[in-house]
Amino acid sequence: MNVELPRKKLDLASAIAEGDIRVLLMVLVHMTGDMRWLEPPYTPKRDVRLIPDPDAGVPKEIQDEIRAAVLKLFENGEPKPSISDPGNELMLKMMRATLGENVAPEYAPLMREEMGFIPREMRWREKPSEAKLAEQHVLIVGAGVCAIALGVALGRLGIPYTIVEKNDEIGGTWYVNRYPGCGVDTPNHSYSFSFGERNPWTRYFAQRQELQDYLLKVVREHDLRRNVRLNTRLTSSRWDEARKRWISTLRTKDGEETFESTILVSAIGQLNDPAPASFKDDDTYKGLKIHSALWTDDISLDGKHVAVIGTGATAMQLVPSIADRVASVTVYQRTAQWARPVKGYADPITEGAQWLLAHLPFYVQWYRFNMFWRYGDGLLPFLRKDPAWPHPERAVNKGNDRHREELTEFILSELKDRPDLIEKCVPTYPPYGKRILLDNNWFRTLTKPNVELVTEPIDRFAPEGIVTANGKLRAHDIIVISTGFKVTEMAARLNITGRAGKNLKQVWANDNPTAYLGVTVPDFPNLFVMLGPNTGPAHGGSVIFQSECQSRYITSCLVEMIEHGVAAIDVKPQAHDEYVRKVDAEHEQMIWTHPGMTTYYRNSQGRVFSAMPWRFVDYWQMTHDADLTEYRKTRA
C-alpha cells in the first residue's frame, strides 16, 4: 500500500486532526490489530445524522489519544496493515463499534464486498476457451451507470459485449441533465463504484459535471470506450427462437443495420424519458419553454423572469441555484414536499480530509461504509406501517411521526419570517411517502423577495406566461417544466419482441411493468433489465449499488449458462408471479401505498411498480448468485 506522506509531520498531524474519529478508530484496528480500539472509552456515540459530527461524541482527551495513535503509525515511514480483511465476525464488531448501534450479522459479508476487502465480481470455475467465449455477445442498450458497471464485469470475464448509446457521449443521466444546480442527493462516497481507483471528490454531494467526469474516468480506467457505439439508437429487437439470438435493428447516422447478440440488456433505467406536461393553450406561449431534462448550456437566465413548474428533486436543486441571478422566479407547486436538512450539503472537502481519503489506509473504505449506512437501510423501519398506530393520516408509525415533528420544526425555523408560506410548505402526508429530498436552502430561497410560491392550479398558458385558476396572469420569459419522467415505460419503449411475438410493451400494459428480481421477464429469453420494476432505491442508497447487484446477477447467469452449455434461459412464469406477489405483499406494509398522497412510485391502478420494498442487504443476497432452477433452460 503506497502512502504518500505530507512533507512535514506537522502537515500530517493537521490532516489527522480533520479526520472523523469513528473512521480513525477502524484504521487503528486494521493497522495495529489491537482490539482495545473497539472498546470503551474509545467507542463513538450513536449519531443518526446524515453527516455526523466528526468528533463522534468522544471526550477531547480520548480524541487526542486516538489521533496521536494514528500519527504514530507513520513514525517509521510507510505503515503496514495487521488486518486486511477482517472476516465476518470482526467486521460485525467493527461496524457496530463505528456506528454505536446493533448492526445485523447479514451486513458483514455485504460490506466486506462493498468496501473491497473481498471481490464482488463473478469468476469462472474454469475459464472457457477463447473460441467458446467468442460465440457469446452481449448487446447493452444505454451507456450510463448500469452499462458501465456491467461492461466492467463482462470485461473481467472476457465475455464480448457492445454498448449502444443514442447520445453523443457516455454518462446517461449525468450527461443529459445539465440544468443549474444539477447534482447527486446521495454522498459521492457511497454514490460511486466499489471497484476502481478512488475518486478525489471536491465536495460531499457532487455537482453534475464532477459526476460526469468521474464516470468517464472509470470508462478510461477499464477501457470501455472501445466497446461503445455512440449516436446509435436501438429501434427494435426480436428473439429468434430457432437460432437463440436477439436480432436488433440499430439506427445510426449512416442508416439502419442489423445486429445479432446472444444476450440483450436494457441499461436505460427508469428516469430517462422526460414526461411532457400538457397545459391548455401551451402552444400560444411566446417565450422559451423547456423540460429541465432537456436543458442546454446556451440558455441565459440573468435578469429573466422564470417560472418553474414542479417542486420535486430537480426543482429543489434548480430554484436555489438561479434565484440570485434572475429578476424573478415563480414556483408553481401542486404538492408540498418534505426535505431533510443536511449540514454540509454544499461544503467543499477540506485539504486535510482529501489527504486522509486518498492516502490513509482503510480511511476511505470506512468513510464509505458510514455514508452507505446513513443513506441505506437505517431509514426503512420508519417507513413500515404500524397497524396499531392511531394517527395514520399524519404518519405510518411512532418513529415516522417523530421524523414528521423534526422536519416540521425545520420548516418552521426556515420560514419564521414568512408565516404566510407555512401552510403552503408543510405537507399533509407522512414523511418519505414521496422521494426523499434534501434541503438545498429550498425553504430559505422561497422567502427571497424575488421568489413567489404559487399553489393555485394552472388554468392555461397565455402568450405572456401562465394564468392560474383564480384568473391571475403572471408574465414569464422562460418556463421550466420540472414534472419528472415517464417512469412506467422503462425497457418497454425499446420495442422488444420475445417468444411467440409477445411485445414487452403489451406485456407491461396499463403502466404495470413487472420482472423477476426486477431483472427478467417470462417469454423474453436472455433479456435482462437493469434498474427495472421494483428496483428503484426509494428509502435511500444509490442506483450505483443497484447496478452492481444486477451486474453480479447477470454475469452469474452468463457464467452458469456458458459453463453448463445452456443457450437460453427464460424465467418460469410461476417464479416470476410468486416474486411479484411477495413484492406487492411487502409494499402493502410500506409507506408508498399510503392512500393520502400521489407518488411516481405508483401506477394509475395504485400499484407500486418502481420502488424496491427490500432492504439493500436483502436485494444483494437475492441477486448475488443466480438460481437457474427458476428458469426454463434450452441446451446449446
Helix content: 25-40%
Counted by DSSP, the helix tally is: 19
Overall structural class, as computed from helix and strand content, comes to alpha/beta
Q: Residue ranges: pLDDT <50 for 5 or more in a row?
A: 5-10
Number of strands: 21
Mean pLDDT: 94
Distance N to C terminus: 45 Å
Structure report:
With 636 residues, the chain is an alpha/beta fold. The protein has helices spanning 9-17, 21-32, 60-72, 87-99, 107-114, 130-134, 145-157, 173-176, 208-221, 313-322, 351-359, 363-374, 398-414, 422-425, 442-446, 504-507, 543-563, 573-588, 616-624, and strands spanning 138-141, 161-164, 228-229, 233-240, 245-252, 255-261, 263-266, 288-291, 305-309, 328-332, 339-340, 437-438, 451-454, 458-461, 465-468, 473-475, 478-481, 496-497, 527-529, 566-571, 631-635. It has a 5-stranded parallel beta sheet, with helices on one face. A 5-stranded parallel beta sheet has the order 8-17-9-10-13, with helices on one face. Strands 6-5-4-18 form a 4-stranded mixed beta sheet, with no helix packed on it. β15 (465-468) and β16 (473-475) form a beta hairpin. The radius of gyration is 26 Å and the shape is globular.
